[in-house]
Amino acid sequence: MISDFAALRIIGWPWAGEPEDPAWRDAMGAHPQARPARVVEQHRSGYMVAEGPGEGFTVESLPEWQRPAGYRKGSSSAEQRAAVGDWVLLEGERIVALLPRRSAIKRGAAGEHYKQQVIAANIDTVLVVCGLDGDFNPRRIERYLLLVHGGGAQPVVVLTKADKDDSDVQAAVAALVGVAGQAVPVFAVNAKDRDSVAALQPWLQAGMTAVLVGSSGAGKSTLTNTLLGAEKMKTADVRESDARGRHTTTHRALIPLPSGACLIDTPGMRELKPTGEEDLAEGGFADIEALAEQCRFRDCRHEREPGCAVRAAIQGETLDSQRFANYLKLRDEVAGAADRLATRLAQKGDAKVQGKAPGKRTDDRRGRH
Ligand SMILES: Nc1nc2c(ncn2[C@@H]2O[C@H](COP(=O)(O)OP(=O)(O)OP(=O)(O)O)[C@@H](O)[C@H]2O)c(=O)[nH]1
Ligand SMILES: [Zn+2]
Question: At what angle do helices 138-148 and 321-368 cross, to 10 degrees?
């Protein structure tokens, strides 16, 4: 099957032609009649995919992805099913294989049963968008960075509205010192201005895929329009009083940019919850974890204990108390999710043992003969 790699490239195919990754070559070699396509929307019953810019089309998913929720035996976990951004192989209008995932943004979905959801796959860049107006919130940025960390995508903090008179860029950047400590670039921009936004180009190269996260009114649509170089998405005028825009983002799942990169817009990105696998030290709080190691007591809770290095740092104003409060809050959330994840894995283990039981009995019977 000859694929149109130029068309695929526009929607984020990572190579100029045939895949350079041996695992991808093997997967494609196993289905010589199939052609690659990218998942742009996930539905209950199937998927919308695209083979290039323009309209997507619905396809049938692999039978093992269609089993109803709760079907245990042999059911594939959500992680093995295709998600938005995944590359799949098609034969006709049918998915025959999932190509190896290069990165994933996951979310823990709390509920009766712990579930993990892949919100977007094969993302190179996560633009964490936050306005420098009343929307500015370093805690929210820390949260996004923690949740995105470890998934294989590079986060880039984009502070919009730097052109506004009431925006204090220096104070904002200073408030992000803990963030800047990790390898996360921070840019203050006017999202309406093309030259200002040009600084983001290294993270939006041909074949790359980016997503934008940030609260309503942060400037995601404005930034998208400027990157597109055209007024393609509707933006609402922000209500000055509460710095929130109305919800007007037109849903378009996959947006090719003139730079050669493409943007994925998927509703799941709007609400990120920890999966329980996050690492607070790696995910942006290395400074606090290092401080905690200097406390006199190993199990210091950083409350009233003597010799507490964390409280000393807060008093000495080398650690922001709000940043520390956010760290504690996120640590609790991650621990809660980790507990639910452990319970879920234990339940799965039980189900497997039960599933194997009949086979064991047969062996026992044989043994008795
Ligand atoms: N002056 C200035 N205004 C901006 C900038 N970025 C966004 N705005 C304005 O802020 C308002 C909200 O921006 P949007 O782009 O709609 O925000 P959004 O993040 O897409 O919001 P949702 O669609 O609700 O998620 C609009 O009135 C924009 O014109 C900026 O860098 N400078
Ligand atoms: Zn302590």
Answer: 20
Residue with tokens 């006709």: 92
Instruction: For residues 37 and 114, give the distance between their C-alpha atoms in angstroms, rounded to a whole number.
Output: 30
Q: Ligand 1 centroid to 217 CA: how many Å?
A: 5
156 three-class SS: strand
Neighbouring C-beta atoms of residue 135, cutoff 10 Å = 23
* Residue 302 assigned to a binding site: yes
Q: What residues are paired with 115 via a beta bridge?
A: 109
Q: In whole angstroms, what is the distance from residue 277 CA to residue 204 CA? A: 28
Gap between the Cα atoms of 283 and 272, Å rounded: 15
Alpha helices, H only, the chain: 5-10, 22-29, 138-148, 169-175, 177-180, 194-197, 220-228, 286-292, 309-315, 321-368
Span 268-297, pLDDT tens digits: 777 778 888 888 888 889 889 999 999 999
CA–CA dist 210, 227 (Å, integer): 12
The finding on whether 273 has its CB within 6 A of some atom of ligand 1 is: no
Instruction: Spell out the domains of the chain, with CATH numbers in brackets.
Output: 5-108 (2.30.30.140), 125-270 (3.40.50.300), 281-349 (1.10.40.50)
Nearest to 257 by CA among 212, 300, 290, 224: 224
Indicate the pTM of the whole model.
Answer: 0.81
Decide: helix, strand or coil at residue 53. coil
CA distances (Å), origin 222, targets 103, 166, 252, 317: 26, 19, 15, 36
For 64, residues 6+ apart whose C-beta sits below 8 A from its C-beta are 74, 75, 76
Give per-residue pLDDT as tens, 180-223.
566 789 999 999 999 999 999 999 999 999 999 988 889 999 99
What is the rounded CA–CA span in Å between residue 162 and residue 38?
A: 36
Centroid of ligand 2 to alpha carbon of 171 (angstroms): 28
